[in-house]
Write a structure and sequence with these properties.
2 copies of one chain form a homodimer. Chain A is an alpha/beta fold. Chain A is built from 9 helices and 15 strands.
């Protein structure tokens, strides 16, 4: 008998986080849907789960702020990433009348934003309500005729809805990046990525001085993102992703140089780049 | 008889955008509340209003994505900025029973995020619903006993609610920056700020090369923000604010240098720095 991994994800059942979790972990595992991103972090911190899966960024709509804020405080490491193509569909209950126009459209804020142009041109004037997830939207649609949910195909299956419009997102190349969290990081594979947090304080030229060591050491920065520091108003913290593993000599050298020019660094984790196994 | 300016803002009445608009424009003007950030941009583009006022960034919760996305496409210029301290209060209808716990808490997503810790510790387990604005939340609370809204004092006055908890935001130093939009920019005052958009494509080291001219010319970058480019998945556009006016010799020099190292620049506007008139 083998021990299954316990994998928590941003639920309820039918979310894209579930799809990300099941596509990342091969074979049978024990999957645990949780109500919020904070709950996923806590479940792994308390050892109720071995891994947690949360969305961090969408290619059209940008960062998931709540995940970034949790990364600032967590003791967990990022041990993997997975990118899932996002296809949104409009769905209603099977008993809904064959109407042209739904009386209400419900979905998660990010999903609504990803379909904004389609909604404005197809259903101008129809009331739109933000709910906590697109799976929750599907659940609401299943309970009330004439309410249309925007969600993925998995949600339509789980909540037994009929899809009335397929692939309605504004960008055909729409995908979301998810992070896999665990108490310890991943070993080097030779094709890794490292995520760090950098606090600079509010000094002019600070960002330039942070980027200089990357340039001088030839380390490729794949991502930079700004968030309020939460310590001082109008001060920022930088989320940075770059190629390499935290155990690489060149990356250790980078950390040394960064420490001389910034207030603080937090290493969020080193993990295999998505797609590098292909 | 004088002609009043027509100033559109993100409504409904009672929002912090209204407070920002009335604190920026002195004297009597004609104020027009509109339903969305997109509508405020369109109203000025169509000349239905002379100026538009929209939130762009909160000191705790970060950028307002919808405003950033509208800035990418608009022909308008930023002609001013105003920073408003944000104090959130919990309010209920005067006919609500003197209960300890509301049956539902409603507010805008950003306001809920700014009060997240307070809500978790004070009202754990009480259902929370996101609505389109905190003024809309106040309106809902006025219609239904036992529903509590999180909103500003102005909303409590307009919707005749009683405040049951004052100043519940997690950070005492919580403020929001608003932009004033108009068809043409503002003249130099000597204490100005310029906002630009920079598209770099997905080249390694691109950001470093953009920052180099700022460093060499001694131009102080006050802000940098990343957003998905919307053109290609996983490509980014940078929003940058720096000190100086677009007509300054040094800034013209900067633009020349930036053009040699990046794909494209869009000048969003030059305007007096908030507080510089003091």
């Amino acid at each position: 008998m083998t021990n299954l991994f316990k994998v928590s994800y941003l639920g309820p059942e039918g979310t894209f986080s579930q799809l990300a979790a099941t596509s990342y972990f091969t074979g049978e595992q024990k999957y645990i849907p949780l109500a919020s991103i904070d709950d996923v972090f806590s479940s792994v911190e308390r050892s109720d789960a071995d891994f947690g899966v949360v969305p961090v960024e969408n290619s059209t709509e940008g960062a998931v702020n709540n995940t970034q804020d949790c990364l600032v405080d967590t003791s967990l490491q990022i041990s993997g990433e997975v990118i899932v193509p996002i296809t949104h569909n409009m769905m209603v209950s099977h008993s809904s009348p064959r109407i042209e126009t739904p009386k209400l459209i419900v979905s998660h804020r990010q999903s609504l934003a990803q379909c904004r142009q389609w909604l404005t041109s197809t259903y101008p004037g129809v009331p739109i309500e933000e709910v906590s997830s697109n799976a929750r939207a599907a659940q609401l649609a299943s309970e009330q005729d004439g309410v249309a949910a925007i969600a993925g195909e998995l949600a339509a299956q789980i909540y037994k809805l009929k899809i009335v419009h397929r692939s309605i997102q504004d960008k055909s190349n729409n995908s979301t990046r998810f992070l896999v969290l665990s108490p310890s990081g991943a070993s080097p594979t030779g094709k890794d990525k490292t995520s760090i947090l950098v606090y600079t304080g509010n000094k002019p030229g600070a960002l330039f001085r942070i980027l200089e060591p990357f340039e001088n050491l030839g380390i490729s920065l794949t991502k930079i993102e700004t968030r309020p520091s939460k310590i001082e108003a109008w001060e920022y913290v930088f989320f940075m992703d770059f190629e390499g593993h935290r155990e690489d000599l060149r990356v250790l050298n980078l950390f040394d140089r960064l420490k001389t020019c910034t207030a603080e660094i937090k290493i969020l984790g080193s993990y295999p780049r998505f797609g590098s196994e292909l």
